[in-house]
Amino acid sequence: NDNTSIYDTTTCSEPIHFHKKVETKPTKLMVSFKTPVAPYASVDLIHHTSQQSFDNGTLRNNKLPEITQDSLMVIRNIGLNNHNECFYSELSSNDKLKISVILYEPQKKKESSSKSAHLRFYTLTTLKKLKHVNLVRCLGYVRTSPERYLLVTEHHLHNLYDHIKTLSNDESIYSELLMYVEQIVSALSYLELSNIIHHDLTLPNCLLYVDNHQSTIKISDYASLDDKYDIRYHTVGEQKLAIRYLPTEAVIKDDWSLQTNSYMFGTLLWEMFNFAQKIPWSNLNDEELFLLFEKWTLEGINTNEITLGFERPQLCTDRLFALIERCLSSTNSDRPSFREISLCLNETPLF
Question: pTM for this structure?
Fold first, then answer.
C-alpha cells in the first residue's frame, strides 16, 4: 500500500507535535466495559466482546489500506459507559506527526423496511466513495485479531455542538454561522449526488477544524457511540436514533430517503440558531415523543403539527425560518433537495 495518502494532513486535522517522549511503556491492560483503556495503550491489547467479523476481501475490494498496529496508540474508549467500542487514538505518520483518529467497527449494512436503494453513510460499501473536504476521511483499517478489524477515521475533539454554545447570541456571528452552513450544504450536496443517506446529521457529528484561523467543518457519524452525547439518543429496536432530529417515517417505519437528510438539515439549522441551548420537542420526553410519532403514523400528520416542536429561534430571519419549515415538511416530496438549498444560498442571502 502507498502509505503517503494515509498520512496526508493537508486536508485533515491539525497535526499534533509531541516533543516530549513518553518514558513509561504502555500499561498491559485488557479493555473491558468496566475498565477504561489506559493512556497510550497498544491496539493489540484491545479486548473485544463483540464477535462480529469482517471479510478481508471486502476491505480489499473497498481499497482501504491496512494500518499497522505499531503506528497507533489508543488513548481512551469514549463509549465505555454505554458498552460501545469507539477508541480515541493517535496515528503516527512517517514524519513523526501524530493525527487524531477514531477506531471503531464498520456498520453492518442494514436492510431497511423501505427497500431503499440508497446507501448508508460509512458502511464498508460507501467508504471508497467518500472524498470531500467537508467529510471525515476513513484512513484505512487496523487488524486487531485474525477475525476483527476496526476502521481508522479522522477525528477531532472540537465540534459545532460544543462551539456554538460559546458564541454570543447576536447578529455579529451571522457570517460565521453562514460559513458553517455553506460547508455543511456542500458536503450534503455531495452525499445527495452519491445517493448516500447520513442517518445522524446532528451538530455533534459536525467536527470543527481550525488551521491558521481557517475553520473547516467535517461531517462524521460516530457521535452516537460517544458517552458524552448519549442523552441525545433513544433506542428503537436495535438502533440508537436521535429521534428528536428525525422524521416520523424514519423512526417508526425505518423508512429512509435522501429527503431524510433534508429533514435532519432543518433540525440542525434550528439547533444552530438556538445556539445549542434548546432541543426539539422540549415539552416531551423521548417515550412521549415516540408515542406521538406512532399516533401520527396511524392517524396521519401535517407539517403544522411538526413545527409545533420547533419554535422560531430569536435571531432567525423570515427566509431562514421558511427554509427550516420546508425541510421539516411531513412529506418527502415537499422537502427541498440540497441542489435547491445550494442554489438558494447562492442567489439570495438567508440572513
Answer: 0.82
